Amino acid sequence: MAETSADTLVTHNTEELNCGTSKDDGGVSHTQKGIPLSRKLCYAIGGAPYQMTANAKGFFMQIFLLDVVQMDAFYVSLILFMGRAWDAISDPLVGYVVSKSSRTRIGKLIPWLVFTMPFGVLTYIMLWFTPKDTMSPAFSFTWYFTMCCLFDTFMSCYHVPYSSLNMFLGGDQKDRDSATGYRMGVEMFGTLAGAAIQGQIVGVYHAKKAQACSQMNLTGDLLPNQTLPLTDTLQNTRRAYVIAAVILGVLYFLCCLVLFLGVKEQLAPLSTLDRIRIPYLTGMKMVVKHSPYVRLVFGFLFASLAFQMAQGNFALFCTHAAGLGAYFQHLVLILLTAATLSVPLWQTLLVKLGKKTTIFIGLSVYVPTLVIIASVQSNLPVYIIMSILAGSSLASLYLLPWSMLPDVVDDFKIKNPNSKDLEPIFYSCYVFFNKFGGGLSVGISTMALHFAGYKPGACRHNASVITTLRVLFAPVPIALLLVGMVMFYFYPINEARRLQIKEELRKAT
């Protein structure tokens, strides 16, 4: 392609900065040329809350419920799986409700972000709060399952319209890809910030527990499945999780404020930003019958499922299988730092090589990385190197599928010019499959650990638990990733088709 990486990445383009806009009623602006740099940055910052909270949950929720709340693994699996299943189901419903909503003075999509944000912040904090020192299994399950479902619902009301907003920033395909690059860079930084805040605040207490277990092991007092007594360290750990949640909640609010002040919705080709007139099931059928969308979605589903399977078990794997429990929060930070720094690399490659080729390269890096991590024990330097490679591969999964989705929506609009304003449904179904995969991965993982004999709070586990962790961390994710790569192979929109879509949209405008 003729696009240059300098323009696609963080470039201070004076033409973008001087781009004028004129506003009509309903809070919608008509962009005259390109997307201003300030709008790209404000849009990108708005994506940080979802990644901060989602990855804090992804890395820490399982170990929080098992070793801090000390809930039985069976109930943890129900919360993680049913909570994510509810989250996934709510996304298409939210997408349809957003599509049916009318424009307001501040737009159609942005009001959803602004008015659901306070509820999202509150329920996120409550998700990490332990109401009692000792809770009955029924009360504990009800509390965390309710908070999980409420938070995920409010986050869907934020993330679905936010992701759909990518289609209404103005500009053409090149501008949207550039905005997506900014967004993924900031989202990876948000992921890093969330894991850093959560990990550094709570990690010290997990390290103390690992040290106590190690001392008991050295003295010969440690038996399989033996737990430590309820101590002040555990109480402090619970308090630390709440403090971390409050800090992330404040950042959630600030990022939403920046988005609200810096982004105005723009009309896109063949879109009106008005409420849709077709029934819910009709709109869903049209979306799922679009072949490029189906192949992209299932490729994203299996690849995301692979990454989330490994991610969800990373803390437990490091703690109980690799003997690096005192270092796992540092490995998480290294992984996410590498992912953040790798986004510009993948953005440059997608411009030069095309999106399909780039995603194959990025995902392929993950396979040998998982094999080496699962094969090596208690070797911190090797884990550091592999965490860097895994983070780089993770960045490609963040960037490429989300960069490919607008092309699919444009292809649909060209083929169905009379079906307008279905963008929220496209994006909500995309998020649905991602979240469903995440719920499936943690549910299966925790249920497998339950049947393997995992005992919450134990310092040392039997051999079947360790074997289960190794299988869940490498062989299963690798198999899922290979299926996802096959799906991406049959994805039909290559660079030639993208240019054809761009020209057809230009003629239709």
UniProtKB/TrEMBL annotation:
One of its GO terms (cellular component) is plasma membrane. SUPFAM superfamilies: MFS general substrate transporter. GO terms for biological process: carbohydrate transport. Keywords: Cell membrane, Membrane, Transmembrane, Transmembrane helix, Transport. InterPro entries: MFS_2, MFS_trans_sf. It is found in: Cell membrane. GO terms for molecular function: symporter activity. It comes from the Eukaryota. CDD domains: MFS_MFSD2. The chain crosses the membrane at residues 59-81, 109-129, 141-160, 181-201, 240-263, 293-314, 326-346, 358-376, 382-405, 425-452, 472-491. It is a multi-pass membrane protein. Its main location: membrane. PANTHER family: MAJOR FACILITATOR SUPERFAMILY DOMAIN-CONTAINING PROTEIN, SODIUM-DEPENDENT LYSOPHOSPHATIDYLCHOLINE SYMPORTER 1 ISOFORM X1-RELATED. Belongs to the major facilitator superfamily. This is Sodium-dependent lysophosphatidylcholine symporter 1-like. It comes from Albula glossodonta (roundjaw bonefish).
